[in-house]
Amino acid sequence: MSFVGSQRLLWAVLPVSKLELLNNRLQGSINTPGFVEALQQLHSCGLTTFAIGGASFGVVGTISPQFGAFDRLQEFAIVTTNITGSIPAELGGMRALEALMLQGNYLDGTIPAELGSLPNLRVLNLGKNGFTDVGLAMHGPIPASFERLRRLVVLSLEVNSFSGALPPHMCSNMTSLNAVSLRNNNFSGSADQFGGCTLVSLDLADNGFSGPIPRPSDDSRAWVNLVMLRLSNNKFEGQLPELQLGEASVLSSIIAPGNQLTGTIPRSWTNLPWLSTVDLSTNDVGGSLPEEFAFTSRLTQLNLRNNPKLVGTISPWFRLAGSLQTFDLRNTNVNGSLPGITRAQREAGLVPEDKLCGSDAAGLARLMNLQIVNIQATDMAAKCGENNSLGSINEALPWYLKVDSHTWQVPLRDPGFNNNTDMECPRIIQREYCVNNQLPRLFDNSSLPSWSMSPSYYHYLGCRCLKGYSAAWDWAPLPSGACTVRRLQCSPEQGLDKAAVIGVSFATSVVGMLLLGYCLYVSWYGRWGLPKLKRAYDDIKKRRDGAPKSGRVSIVITDIESYSALMVAMPLIMGKAMSVHNNAMRKAAWTHYGFIIGQEGDSFIVAFREALDAVAFCLQVQQALMRADWPQELLTHQKQLDCAAAGLTPPGQLIRDSSNHSNNSTTPRLSSYSTTSVSPLPPFGPLRSISGGAANSSGGFVAMPTELINQSSSNSSRPRSPGPTQAAQRPTSISLDGTADSLTSAGTFVTAAPGSYISSTAAAAAAAGGVAASGNGAGGVEAVSAVSLLLPGLRVRMGVASGMLGDKEDCLNCKVLEVARVVSDAGSGGQVLLDSVSFGLVKDRLEELGQVGHSGYARSSRVTGWGTPRGWLARKLKRARLSAEAIVLDMGLYSIPGFGSSHALDAAQLLPDAPADSTAAAALADAGAATAAAAQQEPPAAAPAAAAAGCLRIYQILAPRLLERAHLYGNKLQLKPGSALHDLPFFAAPGTTSASLIDQLLQQVSDFGAVYKQGSGSVKGSKVMGSKVLQGVFERQQQQQQQRQQQQGSDASRQQEAAALTTYVFCSVILPAKARLALEPSVAAQVSAIVSRVLRQCLLALTNHASAAAAAAAAEAHDTGDAGSSNGVLRACGYMCREVGGDMKYLLVFHRPRFALEWCLLVQEALLWQDWPAAVLDRPGQLEHAATGLSPAAAAAAVTASAAAERDGCAPLLFRGPRIKMGVDCGIPQAVCPDHLGRADYHSNNINMAARYEAVCAQGGQILLSESYTVEVHQVGRFVVKGQPSPVDIVQEPLSVPRTH
């Protein structure tokens, strides 16, 4: 509001007697003519009070002289505004004025003498005007006319620049004056005239008054109502006046520091009953410290510091001053010791504890309101004289004081005695106090009194010199000379001369520059290639730029397992659980610079600029959910579902926990479960038992590549390529179990019926040794306990995909999002899956990802250590390694219908139509037929279906602390119907599902230190989450196997030992001599690709063949009523674990020796029929190396074996194109663990033997193995045959090999 138009406003409210415009936002000039005229009209109508201001800094202008005509106005106030100028003399015409308040403005000039003509004036407040620091304030003396203001009660001229002497007859004429505040001015002269004023408050602080301090006139009761006397920082001198009880009976504060007062403290002051504050610091007061102050019941502050003539001791009676809060005797000559017995005397039992507070022994401990005690620079000491030395600091300190050994402080200087600033002494604190005669009590840590004392009091015991100073002890008298104490003196140590200082400084500078240069070098060329500062800049830039709009992007899609079912079963509990889930997601996204670009119910879509941030986000979320405080009802419900999924207890029955394993995680451990009925669940996928069998799965489907299954059975005369097989369209999920079976081939691909619910419990039983689906034993409950420990609360699956955004694409409409959705849908709850692009971007930073904990990176920086030093310094410095790496597992290569990818499936035919008598071709044809019959598949689809699908390689990543989740999932994936497997995953390799894998993975953690330190964002615990539980399950599994072996005898033991054997095949490609000389890099790459594809497809072809045989055996057992393996199970025969493409060398492992030789023979034959480049053929366009030099008998046998050769009249084909030589050996692996590409890596001496067979002994096209291995291949086993009294050894005939060498 402004003053414009205010006249019309005031006319509208007439008549008024009081106008207050305080604490508003008024703006405008106070001397505007219209505003003054409006006030005049109001005044003529009875206005008696006008007030404006109150922090209204928009009010400006000056005080108009026209206000002097307001002769009926009683109160005129302009407070805290921005008005300037001086007070007009015309205000003296306001004859009825009782209160003139102009404080808090910017007035200057002098006080008009005309104000002394206001007969009714009671309040005059001109305080705090102008700029006193630059002299622009009200100034000048107090006019003598003020002596006529007989009715004046309050006079406030504080914080101005008034000067001069006071009017001599102020109090004699101004008989009503009660409150005077003249502080912060420049007044001088005497202040005796105030002795005759009937004052309540007198404040003369910060002026230049001199002479004696004012006191009541003789036989006067003028100060009988005086409450505060403040005389600080003047030039008063002389002795302190006596103040009797009848003269100042209600006086509470005597504040007179910074003067020149002398004499002793009058004892009459101790009789003032309301006295609470006595401040006489920085004067020249002497005499003894009156002990009568101890009996002043309301005394709270006694400040006598900086009075060197003050002597005496602290009387024990001061224990009665219960209200005392501040006791300051610094820089006085008070001597003696503190009241009360010492700590040493208390420990010796000089006074019983129950009497400690009720006698003189209590000392100052009874002052329970005490806040500040300062006895620095005094003559006080616990003991005096060389004959009274102290043995310990406990002999010096009273019992209520003690040493805080954790805090050191530099004491203040003791003038005339010692320079204490070059040492440090322990802090003295008071922890105990007394209440009446009760036992001592303890102060709260937040309310400890502050004690300051000179170290001379306790003879410098516990003090030490600062670094660079040497200590010297002696005995010296205190400044008064009355006491001698032991003193510590610290003097600077002898330093180097100037030349030495210059030399050392120069050498230090050179070394520092070298180290700085090396650090910068390592920062730029270190392990991760970016310095900390650049990384910090990049992180800030990522936060600033927001979600990616172009360039590279990494997208994470999350989903909660069984979210809909949980929301139906427990909607209220899920509301709380979703709050925990969403908080973990948002916190991790913020920590790793992610942006939530979409949220569909339980699913989050998060975009990142770096794949490292995306993967770190997933690892943090999984660990945060692992440690989250989930509702107990959700944990109970999840465990009931797990038990029902494993078939341990029918729904609705009581489920009890039989696990006795410890749980070190923060997740609540379930020791029992409620009796609430478990809602029925859809059919589960297969559940593997301890022995490696699989439970039946209705409607199961074998998801596998079929390029090599169907072989033509026609008697064609010429070799021809087999037609592509027809893939089925049934599976919704693919699960691979690579555990060896003692009687059947090892490794099973397991899928559930379309639309079925795939529970993590099934995988847990498979990994942790659960019981069969129909069992309810303790082992199954332990397996479920392991699942509940490793997957508590909500189970979130997460998929990560990376790629480049197109020109017209955004994060919500791009190919990368489609890939991320497929990858996410393939996972299970608690699993993190990556596509191949994301894996390629993070595979070299797994050690850094291993630091991710539940709240971010476990260390203060992701880039730590010395980087990768080079040269001679690399041999001198060892970079400290980080914690265990994140673990990555290759989950296989799949073709998915309808999935578009930049890497389409290569549908080239790897094998031609083989001759009718080809053993391998016949086996493959039989395998395809048997598999289709056993699995009850629908009619095969057309061949182009597989070619239309895109290929996708999937990886699984796990944090070191969630390592054992790998065994819960195995190779289980959920893919679209019709998906096919083209490269076997990690757990298809022999031995990967055994307990030895956990030992090897846990070894990574122990190699980097058993203790994972707890710090900013660190993970509590030093081991993998849940390792004790699963390890205990594995130990009991081994014990059960040993018991079964003892019961079954030596035959079962031999079978078990045979099942543990792993067969290794080391092979390499040999090119013809002419081809080696003329081979170009592009041709070599083409040859390497063909060989690699043949090796993998032959491996899958044998897998299909073994699966068909197992399915046929299961069907036959079912017809006869015997229990057998599950239908729809894909038996993995072997695994390619290493491939060196440039050298064309390969390492494969097999579950059985027979599978290894079958694969070797199939590869040797399949390589004959490939479309090799002309450069690698000695005779392009012709069959190479025909068998024309054979003997008649050998030639006749070869012709008989090949119908095509018989019809065409040519010799059988022996070699064509590159030749591959193979070395085979078998043995038990020493270790199996994932390598840097997520593939299974084996450590065994038998691998070296197989490599020697291949490199030293074998020729191109030859397969070499030891004699004992040959016997192992032929030996099938010992079986009980009907009609035979004892088991019979079954021996297989040698495999026919259609070639000689």
UniProtKB/TrEMBL annotation:
Keywords: Membrane, Transmembrane, Transmembrane helix. The keyword Transmembrane helix applies. It is found in: Cytoplasm, Cytoskeleton, Cilium axoneme. InterPro entries: LRR_dom_sf, Nucleotide_cyclase, RLP_Defense. The keyword Transmembrane applies. The chain crosses the membrane at residues 499-525, 553-574. Residues 652-678, 710-738 are annotated as: Disordered. Residues 656-678, 723-738 have a biased composition (Polar residues). SUPFAM superfamilies: L domain-like, Nucleotide cyclase. This is Guanylate cyclase domain-containing protein.
